[in-house]
Amino acid sequence: MRVLVAGGEASVLDTVFRKELSVNGATGIQSTRWVWLAAVFAVCGCGDDESQRELDFAGQVVATALDAWKRGESADSLLSHETPIEFHDDDWQLAARLVDYTIVQVYRDTDGGPRCAVTLTLQRGQAPPEQIQETYQVNTNPKVVVARDPMS
Number of C-alpha atoms within 13 angstroms, CB side, residue 34? Predict the structure, then answer.
């Protein structure tokens, strides 16, 4: 990664790890570059707040949908919520009963999209309940859509 700093461009590693400063004629990063670098990180915050809000929202969306499934509602009922949720899950559509669930982790996948790893306890027909591990993809723009990650 390269960062624009006063007087040119320097890599973050150069800026953080190089200890040379303009002392006794030695060349290196000037102290003003440290000030600019600190200002850049302070102002942008590296997007952590916005990213965390998106992950929190993704977790809430999945929990809302799974709560509705657990109560015996249809997936289509989620479309009438204040924030409509389009939820795709084959087991739900095939009338499997959601006995319980646990959200294990909400994270950002390599494609940048939120993912929600869950443990579902499902009962299909008269069979005893079974636990399965699934991951849901969560898209929030332009509308909220949740679907099982085909790679999970």
Answer: 11
